[in-house]
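Posting for a labmate who doesn't have an account.
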Amino acid sequence: MAHVIEAICTGTARPFNGAETSAIAKYPREGMVQILEDGFAPDEQADRRVHGGPEMAVHCYPLDHHDFWRERIGAIDLLDQPGAFGSNLALRGLTEADVHIGDRFRLGSAVVEISQPRQPCWKIEHRFAPFCNSRGMVAAIVETGRCGWYFRVIETGEAQAGDRLERVRLGACDWSVARVFKALVAGRANRHELEALAELPALAPKLRERACEKLSG
């Protein structure tokens, strides 16, 4: 089943928290957008140590989750924006339980592959703070698994709003994004799961390393 891309969103680094900058504010693009090895062009990440790069090239946060947040923090205008959570792809009908590490998708003329869940950080709460009481958003993401995920780019190309995201190959069927997030980010993995994740080829190297560290720890 293919899913319509409602928006492709990109952003630039802007003042965010005192001297810090962030490109978490993503806005819809018109027309065709290039998809390169590091993602849509142009699209910035302020801190390349923890954001961006080939293993976090394209971020998807399901629009399906916006209704959950409306109930939790209120029907604020920011939740009407497709890039509210810093996501590049806005679509419906796919959530973390439906997709797996290593799943490949045709996106316009490009091919992308799921590499890892998104790990939430304080910037999400700071992004929403001017509009609502955002305290507890990160904790809610960890608790509910509404995290979103990243793609790596297998074949470069281009895409635009209205194109379809179509799965062309299943990855690790035992490892949905939801399960990996629960195991490695929410910290609920058992030893067997950690051993499997440490050896999961399609999982981003940093998360495989985290699994190894948890095993040795």
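Reply:
Got it, the structure tokens are right above this. The chain has a mean pLDDT of 94.
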